Structures are given as structure tokens and as C-alpha cells.
Records
---
Amino acid sequence: MGFFSKWFKSSEQEAKQLSSGLEKTSTSFISRITKAVAGKRHIDEEVLDQLEEALISADVGVKTTLEIIQNLQERVKRDKYIRAEELRIIMRDTIIDLLPKPLDESLISVPKPYIILVVGVNGVGKTTTIGKLAHQYSKAGQKVILGAADTFRAAAVDQLTIWAERTGAQIVKQGMGADPASVAFDTVSSAIAKQADIVIIDTAGRLHNKIHLMNELTKIRSVISKLIPDAPHEVVLVLDGSTGQNAIEQCRQFSAATQVNALAVTKLDGTARGGVVVGISHEFKIPVKYIGVGESINDLQEFNSKTFIDAILGYQP
């Protein structure tokens, strides 16, 4: 585990929280698996067909589902005989292998300040995710500065200001309608001057005009890189997990508009569509870094593919 992982400490309480948050997805998926293998002594084509339906119903996505089923078919063909009770273990390993692996942070030099640019459409929990990240970093003793570069909506600036006050972070903001790139520039300049550890910059989420969005994000990245050549170091796309396939389309749009290198999937509690985390990450080859499994300030977790898949499958190693 690397530089950031120490701030997202794994605990038994968090594991329970994850299982609770994914309960609807898990209950639906497990019931389908149970039905598929009922009375079966080994995995056959009928079982695989029902598993395919279960994966698609969990919003894993057609492309990813077909690859999972293909891998299972190859495993069945190779091993000739697989007991139905082994299915969860095989599925667990198959799905985990499909997910892109995050960088080993222990092998990289983390710059100071570390610049995080957060993108996503309005309503996905973008600003709330920023607030929860600020809380985690501040709690760990890191000096955090937030940049209110979503100047298109006054509510976004107001909400980020509340989060700054709540978490003890500093905030850089201008008036509504100000140039977002100017806010980003001022934020990074302030972070350098004040020797901050973490900078998190909010951005507007307007997909109805993709060209404008692309130009705006390109300009923000350009002014940041003038101050710190390799920045932003992380571009986090926030997606609402409860929207299923709509989240996949948003990922497609944003990854075309800017270089996204991390995903945060929110609102996974209370939805049966948690499988979308697997589909998005696999299809776009972007690692999921954070997941939201509740509304409280501590309900943002660092994503761990093994514990996530275990929670969905109800598997206890």
C-alpha cells in the first residue's frame, strides 16, 4: 500500500460498511447464482447462460459480461469438471483479473503539492466526494486547499465552501462566472506559497456542450502545468453508480474530453447496480480509486477489488 492508502485505513468496520452498502447488489446477484446452480453438480452451458443474465442485470455491461463468461467457458473446458460450489471462487478470480491495477504508490515519488482535478456531471456527488477526500486528508494531518473552479453554478461554490469549513481545509474561490482556469491557477499558486500537501480542484460538469467542456478542461490543465509541469497528477472522474449504463456513457464522454486516470463511483448504497464498477473500469481501462457507500463524511472508501468483489459475491475467504 502506498502514500495515500495509509489515509484510508482498512478496518473490520469498513468491511461491514461495504457489505451493507452493496447489500442490494449482492442479494440480487447471489440469488441468481443460487438459482443457476440449484440441483447442479457441475457448471454447464445452462448455468453459464444464467450467470450471463445475472451479470447484465447487475449492470456489469455486455462487453465485460461476455469476457467474463468466455473466461469461465475456457476454465470449464480446460478443467472438464468444476463443481457448482466452486463457482464463486472462480468468478471472483476471473473478475479481479479483468480489472486494471492501480499504480503501486510505494514505487512513485509523490510531489508536493499533489494536484487532484475532479470532473463529472452535476448531481453525481462530485462536490461531496471532494469534501470527503478533504476530510480524509485533513484528518491525516495533511494541509489541504480546495479550488472552486465550478464557477458556472453559485451553489457549487457555496457547497464547497461549507465542506472547507467542515473539514478545516482552505479554499480559493472567485465570483460566479469567473474564468475556471483563473481559479485553478490561483489555487495552485496559493498551494505553492503556503506549502500545502494536497490540492483538490472542482470543475463544472456540462456535457451538453462537449466541445466547450473539452476546451475548458484543456485550459485548466494548461495553466496548472505552467506552475507544476507534471500536474494535475490525478484526474478523478466521479460517477453515480446508481445510474448504471448512464454512468458508462458519462465515462466515455469525459475520457474523450480529458485524460482521466482514476474513477470515484458514488451512491453504491441502496442500488442493485453495483456491478457497473466492474464494467466501467474494465471497459475503459481506468482504475477505480474511491467508492461511496453511504452519506456520512466517513463513507468514502479506497477501492479494493478483492474486498469489493467478495462483498458482491458474498464470499468470505
---
Amino acid sequence: MIEVRRPKDLARLRRLALNAQGLLQNQPFGRGLAGARRAINHVGYVQIDTISVVERAHHHVLHSRVPGFEPAMIDRLLRSRDIFEYWSHAAAFLPIDDYRFSLPYKHAIKSGQTHWYRNPDRKLMRELLTRIRSDGPLRSRDVEAGARKQAGWWDWKPAKKALEQLYMEGDLMVSDRDGFQKTYDLTERVLPAHLNTAMPSVEEFATHLIDQQLRCHGMVSLKGLTYLRRNTELRKAVKVQVNDRLAQGTLEQVQVNGGDVFLLEAGAFEQSLPRLKQRLKILSPFDNSVIQRDRLKALFQYDYQIECYVPEAKRQYGYFCLPLLYRDEFIGRMDCKAHRRIRQLEIKSLHLEPRSSDTDAVISALVDAVAQFLLFQNCDSVTLTQIYPQPLTQTVRSALEAWG
């Protein structure tokens, strides 16, 4: 067991984790469409989210890693069958080559496990399958007319619920998208012919998860390997394989400050890593690097919670605070809203952590990051309302004004 207590060793762990996530180098996956394809293949999934106060999470995650990424590229990758849409720990875009590892959950749903609905309308599902088989793909808007959309997912009309159940069970796939309007088609008409569609054994699934998580995170806790997966047999199989790899010496353990224990490939702690740049990244709350909050706190001492699900009166930082990563530290958060009609980005509040060391360098990097973020949001100007700690208010405002 490697004991990590010294600041320089913890810094090495952070760099290992951030490098595995593609957040240290300028273009670790390349640029544009090809870079986006490689990025999704590497990180394993990109979470889909509907919140649109700034550019949506699935676009934001790729923007943070792939220079030249444009939101329309996600739809192109879906249409070209490089990725597919399904449930990971949440709704996500996933590499098409990982399709077979979606089958166990689809089988569980078809066998009676509840995802959204307890009593699916089987008769209506059969009718919809027949219609799609004979008439071709069906757009979600074709069955949404008259739905009381203001009430949320649970108020969808029966046909929409039936379509989504067929999708969750694996009979249908999303073949195309227009924003959040899905087009459904028969799975056999969507999948590439060369794809392996064999149901994986629980041991194969465990191997896939361990390899994937080590690849995209650099290190992972035993709990993190099956993050939000409630399959008891899978968890047992993962634990058995981890113990086997530890015994064989292909995995080793590292303990951070006498507490959390992480697994990493043998020798990874000593590997050569990219140098840190004086660069700040504005990340999505659903970014793969921050989504496991316990891991984030253990490695980076960064206590983060997305507050859009918290009652307004109880919010500490704002509705949709974006984590700020500078070099190998999370140094703050920024609550933003893109006013698209007037092409203005409003920074409602900017919170910088008290431990931020070189304040001038951080502010300079922040201004550069905001300039790039403006372009991503299709905005031309930025406003800043509140800054914490307040003594930095004039410094930050002046820096933004000098840039603008």
C-alpha cells in the first residue's frame, strides 16, 4: 500500500487523475469531430442533461477536452453510429463498441425491474413496435402532441411512455436527435453489422468496468468502480477481480492522508506525466472528473454540490455553479447564465477558494478562460455581479474590463 501524506505526492496523484481525464494537455484526443469521437471512447460516457442556463453538459464536457468541438458534432457521431444513447449511471452518450455492456440492464428492465414506470402498457408497446417496423423511425414529437409538458417526465402521454420503455428494454434505439427531440428505430436497424451483441457474463462486465475506470480516471476506489450501479452480483465480481489483480501485482493501492484508498495500475504512481500549465478550465457540474463527489473531496479537498436541486433559500453558491480547475487544483466555482437573445454571459457570482495561492496568475487565467467560454456560449459580452472574497472585486472587474 502506498501511503500518500506529503503535498508533492498528493499533487502527483491529482496530476495522474487529471491526465487520465484529458484535462492537462492542450488536445489529448485531437481536434474537432475525430477528437470528440476519441474523447468519448476514452472517458467511457458523456452525461446528457437538459439544463440550459449555459451550453448543455454533454457539449460542455467535450468542449473542455477537444479544441474545435461544436455541439452539432454529437448528433453527427450519433448518426454515424460512432456512439449510442443509453443509461450509464444517468442518461448518456456511450461508445458504440461498448453496446453489449448495456445489455444486462436492458435485460433486467425487460424482466421486470423498474426504471421509470411500474406498469408499462404492453399492448401499446406492441402496437408501436409494429408501427415502427412497418412505417419506419418514429420521432418523439409524433407522440407528444397534447402532452402537459410543464408537469415533467411523469406526465408524458401513454405513447411516449411506451416508446421510452421499449428504448430502456432495448427493442428500440435513438437513431437520431434534433435537440431533445429523439427519433426511435428498431435496434436491429440501428446497430452496425460488425458489432458484438453477445450478452456479457458478469465476469466480462466486471473486467470491462475495471479496465474502463482505470483508463479514464487513473485511479478509482472500489466503490467508484460500480458507481450508482445496484447490481449485487456485478459488485461481487468486481471485488473478486480486484483482489485477484492485487494478489497478482498488476494493481496496487494508495491511501490518501490515512483515509480513502484508491486502486491504480502497478507503476502508475511513478509514471511520467505532463507538466502543469498556468491554465484555468471552466467545467460542467456533470463533468466526468467531478461527478463522483466523494472522490473529488478526497483527492482535491474540494467539497462540491450542484445546487439546482436545492431550494433557492438554501443555496450557498448559486443555481448552476461551474467548477473552476486551475493547474491541478479546484480553486472556485462560478454561477452563470447565458442570455442568448442579447448574446451576453452573466456571471452571477464568482467564488474563489481561500487557499488560492497566486491570485494574480489565477485571475489572469480566469479571464482567458472566460474569453473562450464566451465563444462557446455564442455570447459577445460578459457581466459580473458578485465576487467572493469581496476584496478581489475591483481586481477581477478591472481584469475583465481590460480584456473586453
---
Amino acid sequence: MKPIRSLATAAALVALLSAGAAHAESRGFLETLHRNTTLTNTVPENGDQNPYAVVVAPVSAGTIKQGDVLVSNFNNAANLQGVGTTIVNYHPGTKQMTLFAQIPHELKGCPGGVGLGTAMTMLKTGWVIIGSTPSNDGTTRTKGAGCLIVLDAQGKVVSTIANDDVNDPWGNMAVVDDGDHATLFVSMAGFGVGAPDGNPPPVFKQATVLRIELAIPQGQPPVVKSQTVVASGFGARADKGVFLIGPTGLALSADRKSLYVTDALSNRITEVDNPMTRDTSAGVGRTVTSGGLLHRPIAMATAPNGHLLVTNALNGQVVEIDPKAGQQIYARWIDTDQAQSPPGSGDLFGIAMTPQGDGFYYVEDDVNTLMLAK
């Protein structure tokens, strides 16, 4: 009987090793990262703070070099929300930060003024587009509808995009850029949201995702050719701590057949089908995953393996999700600041992959820093 038991033990050991090897081969992207590094303080000379958007330059143009990291500031020097007016530029080659743009708070064509949020992109033609979610007193009590601001590669404002479908461009954009034309997806979180009264303030299920089709004539700024609300009915509300809460992260699948949205107040990721071609709203779309490792999901990026990387607003973690399987793979602490409870709560906003795809940039807004996870 002893040889039989030995064979059984050996077979079990082989099965265990095989399972371990299979697990090793299927590691998620976050498990390949080793350290979080502070790159720079993001406060420019005028004292603006609270970094939000993070965008990696796809090309060299004007004062920007390919691979530079643009970061917007949402607060002013007095730490009032919705009145930050600066975009800074971190240069990985020199490890220096410079001011890319400083926009007047009062800007013609931008209802309510300028408060630079998380909605930002740089196009292959060198134009930078950023959303304004403005306030005059740091609260939603004086919130304006805002606009999208187009800047040239020198940081100069050249035009604005404002209309009835634009109301507080809030989340990081998903972008398809084909050079002479581009498609932007932007979440609009301001509809219905007013003063931060109540505990908590009321939720308005009026937030949308707007698809904007741009034509980009050679040497000329982008112009809007058409726009379509492709998703609607997401919850949004005022918040004294973070100004407002609404759908924030947007990411397209590689085949462009799915648009993923972080629905913060419902603590879920949803999927909108056929986002490039649909001519009606999909509502809030289909739930991909909810709860679990998600704790008010906000910014989102796509890893090289096609998984989604989603930052949490209520702790310092980023969560990896397989959107096709609807599976939450792994969570990694990228902000362990014990000053918040849980650690890192309320610190994470923008996120962007490195050009090489071997890590990602993010910001810690409590200490005004640009970080690199790699």
C-alpha cells in the first residue's frame, strides 16, 4: 500500500505545481509593479494646488516634448475648489517641472469661469483640450456650467466649447485621435447639482457621457462637427470635501466597441456598447462589476493586457479589473498616507499609463505630488 500512497502524493504535488505555474503565467498587470516614486511637487508659482488631470504628451509640439506629463490644478492658493487655473508640465528627461498654461479665471465663452478639472487630453496635432468645472467661492453653491478649453502647444487659449450638453466636464477623457479628426468622450456631472446642502446632499441622476466629434483642419484649432449623448442617468451630487461626486473614469476597449465608465455613487463599472456609432443614449449601460475591491471608483486607465486600472476615492488603492470576465483581479496600495482614514482616502484622481506601458503616473492631491508606479 505504501507505493500507492507515494504515487498519489506525487500526483498531488505535480497538480499543485502545475496550478502554481498556471497562476504565475496569468499574473495581472499590477502584480508586475514594484515601487511608487515621487516625481515632483505640482504647485506652480501662483500657489495653485489639488492636482487632478494627468495626461502624457503623445507628440512634441511648442513647449511640450513627447512623453512629458501634463497635470491640471483644481484649487487656487487659498485651497478653494473650482478656481484653479494652471496646467504644469513635468519633463521626465530633465526631472523638472514648468508651467505650461495659466488661464484667467474669468474667460469669455466659459460659463461660470475656470476651474481646471480631470477632463484633459493632448491631441497628435499638438492641441490641448481641458474641461472647466468652475466655482467662485470653492463650493457648488456658485458652480457654473463650465466649458472645454482649447489651448495651443504654447499654452495659449484659442477657443472654447460650450453648449447645452456641456455642464461641468468632470472625468478623464477617452479619446480616439486620427490626426485630422478626433472623437472625445467626456462625462458631464453638473446637471441638477447645486448647493452642498443636506447630509449628504441629494443625488441627481442626470449626469451624462457626451461624445464630441472634432474636425482638425491643418494648422487650425479643432472644431466641433457633431456631438451625441451616449450615456445618461448616472448619479451626481455636491460634496463639501471633493466639490462634487459623479461619473469620472472613461476608457475604450481596444476594438472601440465598449466604453467603460466609473459610476462613483453606485460603486460600479458600467459598459456602454457601440459608443463610436450609437446615436441614442444607452442609459447607464450594463454593469461590469460592482462592490468588492471598489470603494467609490474614480479615474481609470487601460493596462497593456486590456485590463482596467481604477483608482478608489475612499482609500489609497488602485484596482485591476478584467472587463471581459467582469472580474476584479487585484488591488494595490499606491497611497498609504496615514493622515487619512482609510489611508489615502480622498487623495487619488488622475491616472495615465507610461508611454512604454510598464507603469502609470498618478497624483496624490493631499500633498500635491505627481507619482510613478512602476
---
Amino acid sequence: MNRFLLLGLGTIAGVILGAWYGWSVSPITYTETSPDELRPEFRADYVLMVAETYSSDRDLGQAAVKLSRLGQDDLAGLVRQVAQAYEAAGYPQEDRDRLNALANDLARYSTLPSAAP
């Protein structure tokens, strides 16, 4: 019985010390990360957030700058691709409408600002 008690106490102490070390002594810090380093599902969420912002402020230039940070040349195509993926996944119609409105407005203009390299 003493072995199991010592094993349990050692495990608990190890978890507590490991968490303390990871959060206090040597935490992971991310610096200078950009949206183009996001995983695909988070990139799609980023595009949706840009579309939501665009639907409220109607600043197409700012939306183009934010989307250009994803490293894609065809911004309208990128937004349409996300809209199609969201349709297949059953996202609300309101989100898809915002994405399609942004894609249509992006497609209308040939010269849009982009983020500085």
C-alpha cells in the first residue's frame, strides 16, 4: 500500500512542479507571428472575422490589408473558398452571406492595398 501512496504523491508532485516550471520559469513565448502561420481551420476563422468587421465598417481597403497577411494573391477566391467550406460544414447563413459579400466586393476592384512585407 505504501508503494501506491508514494507513487500517487510523486505523480501529483511531478504534475504540480511541471506546471509551475512551464508557466513560471520557462513559458513558451511567441513573437512576431503572423496570420499566414495559422492552421487552416484558424485561417478560415480569421477570414470570417475580417468579413464580420467588413460588414460593420465597410472598409474594403482595410479588409484587403488584413486578408493579404495570409499570403494569398487571390483574396476574393480565398474568401469564396472559405464560404464554400462553411456552407458544407453547415455554418449559419448570416456568416456565409458576410463572406460572399466580401468576396464580391473584393472581386470588383483590381487594385487593393496589401500589407507591407
